[in-house]
């Protein structure tokens, strides 16, 4: 895989590195962090990491010993695209999605190593507990009681465009080398995001090619670079990516494994903010300007400002969804929305 032009990225600041002695220190670091941080060797004692340090073949054999006999979803990108999984010229995807057993996928990865005409292969976030037997238990991490979604990413040398995620994330390199390039949430305007409904994996992505940025087409990307952080990671390293931080991800080795743990500090029954944005696009964006201004004021009143004093005129027992939400009131809103959308 081609290296990033050092003339463009030389000014990037490295992600802060922290040392944590135990689960308690990791918990404290995660709770207080509002920026990414890197912990070297946090999962260096995983058997999967030990296998990967021996060879790519040993890492694949270790995973095969734990894999369940079921189809995995794998994306096959185009040769000659430097591993970039992205749009094609027609704004479809430049990769095909296939399903196969893991031994077949690994055989294709091994056969393509070192060949410039090989298709990059990429198993995106896959539920460890569903697709592997005891892989998580044999490679544990203590996250102090957080309820996590645990995913594994397996692939050849690939590049994944900058995107963000709603949950917090602890990304652990198990095999190969990774480069994360990160941007604060407010840099979305300078990353030139693509469509929000036609995406490679459900999240809007930056349209900028980080290996060859077109500054004539994307001039504000220079400003984004002023805020960029970079993390170069080896097997055993772990990176905390706070919610909504943008991250461009590169698997730099011929074979790469990443394990990540996602969690939310807010209850899952609150729903996904992206759904509210999608609905607002349909219902509000194309209204006349004066009507949009009114709805902006209403959103500020009910959602963004949301002060108790604004609702003091309503008896407390009668405030319904204007009171702090509960699982029951959230379900009431969800049911109301479904009925309205189905009319």
Automatic annotation (TrEMBL):
One Pfam family this sequence matches: Cupin_8
Domain of life: Bacteria
InterPro entries assigned: Cupin_8 (IPR041667), JmjC_dom (IPR003347)
UniProt domain JmjC: residue ranges: 115-278
Protein name listed in UniProt: Cupin-like domain-containing protein
UniProt organism field: Stakelama flava
């Amino acid at each position: 895989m081609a290296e990033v032009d050092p003339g463009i990225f030389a000014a990037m600041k490295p992600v802060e590195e922290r040392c944590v002695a135990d689960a308690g220190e990791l918990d404290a670091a995660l709770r207080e962090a509002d920026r990414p941080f890197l912990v070297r060797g946090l999962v260096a004692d995983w058997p999967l990491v030990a296998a990967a340090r021996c060879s790519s073949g040993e890492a694949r054999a270790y995973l095969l010993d734990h894999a369940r006999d079921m189809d995995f979803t794998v994306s096959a990108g185009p040769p000659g695209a430097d591993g970039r999984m992205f749009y094609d010229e027609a704004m479809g995807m430049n990769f095909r999605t296939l399903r196969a057993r893991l031994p077949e996928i690994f055989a294709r990865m091994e056969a393509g190593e070192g060949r410039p005409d090989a298709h990059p292969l990429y198993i995106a976030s896959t539920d460890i507990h569903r697709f592997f037997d005891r892989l998580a238990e044999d490679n544990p991490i203590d996250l102090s009681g957080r309820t996590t979604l645990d995913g594994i990413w397996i692939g050849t040398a690939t590049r994944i465009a900058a995107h963000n995620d709603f949950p917090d994330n602890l990304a652990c390199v198990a095999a190969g080398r990774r480069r994360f390039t990160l941007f604060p949430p407010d840099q979305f305007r300078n990353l030139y995001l693509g469509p929000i409904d036609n995406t490679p994996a459900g999240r809007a992505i930056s349209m900028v090619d980080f290996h060859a940025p077109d500054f004539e087409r994307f001039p504000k990307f220079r400003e984004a670079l002023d805020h960029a952080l970079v993390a170069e990671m080896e097997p055993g390293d772990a990176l905390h990516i706070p919610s909504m931080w943008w991250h461009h991800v590169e698997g730099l080795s011929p074979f790469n494994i990443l394990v990540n743990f996602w969690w939310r500090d807010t209850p899952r029954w609150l729903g996904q903010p992206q759904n509210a944005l999608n609905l607002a696009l349909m219902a509000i964006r194309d209204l006349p300007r004066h009507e949009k201004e009114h709805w902006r004021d209403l959103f500020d009143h009910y959602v963004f400002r949301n002060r108790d004093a604004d609702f003091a005129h309503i008896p407390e027992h009668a405030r319904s969804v204007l009171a702090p939400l509960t699982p029951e009131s959230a379900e009431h809103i969800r049911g109301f929305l479904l009925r309205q959308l189905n009319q």
